[in-house]
Amino acid sequence: MSDALRNAGRISVSGKDARMERVLSPSEFLPGWVIYGPLVIFWILSGLRYRDFAVATLANPHIPSGGLCNESKSEILAQGGPDATRHVAPWRTFPTGPAAFETALKEMSAAGFSFPVVLKPDIGCKGAGVRLISSREQLRDTLRQYADDTLVMLQAFIPYENEAGIFYSRLPTEQHGRILSMTFKSPPEVTGDGVRTLRDLVLAHPRAGKVPHIYLPRLTGRLDTIPKQGERVRLVFTGNHSKGSQFQDATSLVSRQLSERIDRIAQSYPDFHHGRIDLRFKSIDSLLAGQDFQIIEVNGIGSEPIHMWSPEKNLLDIYRIQFDFYGRAFRIGDLMKKRGHRGAGTMNMLWQWRRQTALIATYPQSE
């Protein structure tokens, strides 16, 4: 790999996106119907082609709806064998309600967790409801914001600054899978000068200043504070594009060692063929060596090929990437169907999507 590309990766994952030549694509924050409307049409046409609108969900038959929607994060992680579990960040789940705070503290004690920890809903997507919890008071307050009987997950916070999404795929006819894409996630941050308010720093930021509506609502109550000289303030915690993180396509960096490690991990999940593994890692060098990383989520076919949000990608690139990745999900699902697997059907798929949408509407705002 070239030194320039390796350095570009370090700039991105360290959050110093101001040095990148292009920090915001004109296509990144277009209305959802522009981004996903053609995908809906593509899905319908693919369903007609394969004579089954839900066949793609069979790509991962041991995950509800193949991981398209309404799947449990904890149930997916629990399916992994030894090759996966030693790389997975520990977690505990419990329902919200009057006793949730006391239950959370007991679960933390049993797991050996200390603050900060990550609290997130067990069912969700695009970072909905994800928060970094730094104290007992914040934990109590956040749990109160959930509707009763919502299953939530407490997960150990992995202190590595770097985060990546690795999209893995394997045809059922193949002995080994491959990494289709790798994307570095970089939550923007600002550095205080002891003079300007947080609001002013956000508006002056080369990326955040172009889309302040993405960042300012999450900083309500802090916008008029003045960060100290040299104080770094992360604008978002969640490594999700819709919440404001910047993504950089790092697929060209993928090494043989990393590919082999991810393949072993993915194949330790039963019949897992197509999805994204989100992880935090110590450094680019260690990641490429297949070392020093912790998995925070394993997602199925509903996980986006997030390299499409890299700033250099245009709208046509986004469409092409989506069609390629979801088209492959249909192909894999069809092969699994021919092997005897049967899905829950189109109506169930739509019901799962509606249930997830209703759940997400009740979650507190993510960070």
How are the SSEs placed, and which strands pair?
Elements: H1 3-13, H2 32-50, H3 73-78, H4 82-85, E1 91-95, H5 100-111, E2 117-121, E3 131-133, H6 136-144, E4 151-156, E5 162-169, E6 178-186, E7 189-191, H7 198-204, H8 212-215, E8 232-234, E9 246-249, H9 256-267, E10 274-281, H10 284-288, E11 293-299, H11 315-338, H12 346-360
Antiparallel strand pairs: 1-4, 2-3, 2-4, 5-6, 5-10, 6-9, 7-8, 10-11
Helix pairs in contact: 2-11, 5-6
Describe this structure in words.
The chain is of the alpha+beta class and 367 residues long. The chain has helices at 3-13, 32-50, 73-78, 82-85, 100-111, 136-144, 198-204, 212-215, 256-267, 284-288, 315-338, 346-360; strands at residues 91-95, 117-121, 131-133, 151-156, 162-169, 178-186, 189-191, 232-234, 246-249, 274-281, 293-299. The strands form three sheets. Strands 9-6-5-10-11 form a five-stranded antiparallel sheet. Strands 1-4-2-3 form a four-stranded antiparallel sheet, covered by helices on one side. It has a two-stranded antiparallel ribbon with strand order 7-8. β5 (162-169) and β6 (178-186) form a beta hairpin. α5 (100-111) packs across α6. The two termini are 34 Å apart.
